[in-house]
Amino acid sequence: MFRKRAKRTRELNTELNITAFMNLMVVLVPFLLITAVFSQVSILDLNLPGTGAAQEQLMEEPPKALEVIVRKDRLELVERASGSLRAVPNVEDGYDFKTLNEILQQVKSQDDFKDETTITLLLEEDIEYDVLIQTMDAVRLMKQESSDDQGKVIVYNELFPDISIGSAPPDADATEKQP
Predict the structure, then answer these.
(1) How many domains does the structure of the chain reveal?
(2) Residue 87, in any domain of the structure
């Protein structure tokens, strides 16, 4: 009468459909390779302040230490022992890095600073990162142009390549103006 039906097990042949994944990889891999070529990172070496062990060494004559203080309205070139050397006021479109570079070239030509390679950049709060990078570029290299029989030749020489950074001291001019 009633027959027991035997359950048939069906074998399912299922294959993964990886066509969409392969299409994604065909587009994504070349895109990543192309963008990796165009994103180049430049690394700037900085000398960060030490822990104080070097400061404990006593010297007969304090070393010459140049500082560039970046203020909101000007750039100041300061020699740590003697005080301010020169202030470079802002021009209408921002900081005057060209004048700063020319002043540093004059300072570098003096006998006191001929062998000096270090300089410290001191920035006030809220100074933009771009200003820091442009200041580093202005103090690091000097551009010299010369002509020869083949035309104009541009040579970059080092000014002060060993750069340290820090926070600027309070502005003495601003505190004098406040009542």
Answers:
(1) 1
(2) yes
* Phi, psi for 30 (deg, rounded to 5): -65, -35
- In order along its 179 residues, the chain shows pLDDT tens digits of 566 666 666 667 777 788 999 999 999 999 888 877 665 556 666 666 655 555 555 555 666 788 999 999 899 988 887 777 788 899 998 999 999 999 988 888 887 888 888 889 999 988 999 999 999 999 998 887 777 777 788 788 888 888 888 888 887 766 555 55
Sign of CA dihedral 152, 158, 160, 166: positive
Domain interval for residue 152: 66-171
Residue 103 located in a structural domain: yes
* pTM of the predicted model over 0.70: no
User: What letter does residue 113 receive in the DSSP assignment?
Assistant: G
Helix segments in 65-128, DSSP class H? 97-109
C-alpha 125/C-alpha 99 separation (Å) is: 23
First to last CA, the chain: 114
In DSSP terms, which residues pair with 166 in a beta bridge? 122
Q: Assess if residue 46 is contained within a domain.
A: no
